[in-house]
């Protein structure tokens, strides 16, 4: 079965008897070691794989990818770590080979690091097979995907965590402590986003050794994310990557745990950056110079919360700019902004002046980073990739609730289809669904209260 057949066959098989006699999956008692599999060993999968193979409490027993080059590079990582060779699936290009892995692998958990369009079905299949899911961002594509993933998680009870690594960034976690200690007073407004020049990710030459830049190909002629992600910029217009920005803000605002999003709208600018890049790099006669991109270069999303806060997200991936997630957390007594690495606290900072964030980090550094910062050194994205894998593994070993759970995943990720809907309706403001079915009123925050995970 080739990748292009994945979707049609995926939906035909969903809910079939294929899953009867499912695996033992996550046991009720806590465990010392986990057997983990991975679907998708591309650029991201391999970053997470490196974190998995350096742990003594994880055995990577199976890897699945439909691209032999990606699979081969992943096997090298396992071998370099001195670990046993995992079983492999998908070399034949069968887009459903992961189901054989779920069946054959006797897995406790699976990491999903494939293109966005496959996350929902793969997570559903894994949960039905009682294999705990650590899913890369996003949870699904359509709004219905999100309801379906939620429904299966609630019915099966199989653990599901969104691997949103930015929630574990050192400054983001320190600010969580600042917020919880009341340093900024009552929370009023937050900002975040995904402001990352992805032009050299969305386009390349198709050379597996040069996944980032060096050409203007995408789709079947591209490699890694250029092969699939760029299509989303062609077909869709919305906040396509919300969780890096909204994850931390949602934790600050206790979304789904005493608070909820109530309303949402998105505005999209024109789409000019990707076309300009193709012409600049490939010339006006390159076939991709005639591609019409729908994704607005800057998509600005506003969310209203039940407790009265507002949150603004910006998706900005098609123009030249240095990376910044653009966080701002503001309350009645002060604020943090990440771009200028600064804090201002009324009555403590000099009036109308910023303090260097470092001065505050010393006091509010999170116990997780204090305890494990050295272990995280060298991990991807400044160490935060260590923490997100650590959290998934530790929570699963303990059979404890996932720190970034199904409601978080669905609520954050559903911003994408809702923002697309808002833009398609002329930037209309929409009601935000309550995925918790009212449980948000009584659920209590659990994320990162101590130094465990
Ligand atoms: N959290 C982060 O910081 C971060 C960073 C980068 C990427 N990501 C996310 O990770 C995911 C993967 O991104 P990437 O950069 O690794 O992309 P990639 O294209 O490099 O890797 C995706 C892999 O999935 C494989 N694949 C596709 N269909 C498959 C199938 N049916 N079965 C098995 N394997 C299949 C591809 O062959 C490829 O190797 C995306 O969701 C992306 O948004 C997250």
Distinct bound molecules: nicotinamide-adenine-dinucleotide
The domain count comes to 2
Radius of gyration computed on alpha carbons: 22 Å
Count the beta strands: 15
Taken from the alpha-carbon principal axes, the silhouette is: globular
CATH fold group of the largest domain: Dihydrodipicolinate Reductase, domain 2
Main pleated sheet: 9 strands, mixed
Structural class: alpha/beta
What does this structure look like?
- Strands 14-13-12-11-7-10-9-8-15 form a nine-stranded mixed beta sheet.
- It is of the alpha/beta class and 453 residues long.
- It has helices at residues 6-13, 43-53, 68-80, 97-104, 116-128, 143-156, 170-180, 199-202, 225-235, 243-252, 273-282, 357-364, 367-376, 384-398, 406-413, 415-424; strands at residues 34-39, 58-64, 87-89, 109-112, 132-135, 160-162, 187-195, 261-268, 298-305, 310-316, 328-331, 334-337, 342-345, 355-356, 430-431.
- It has two domains: 3-158, Rossmann fold (3-Layer(aba) Sandwich), CATH 3.40.50; 167-369 and 407-441, Dihydrodipicolinate Reductase, domain 2 (2-Layer Sandwich), CATH 3.30.360.10.
- Helices cover 36% and strands 17% of the residues.
- It has 16 helices and 15 strands.
- Helix 6 (143-156) packs antiparallel against helix 15, helix 10 packs across helix 15 and helix 13 packs across helix 14.
- Bound molecules: nicotinamide-adenine-dinucleotide.
- Residues 3, 6, 39-45, 64-67, 70, 90, 95, 98, 113-116, 118, 136-137, 165, 224-225, 227, 381 line the site of nicotinamide-adenine-dinucleotide.
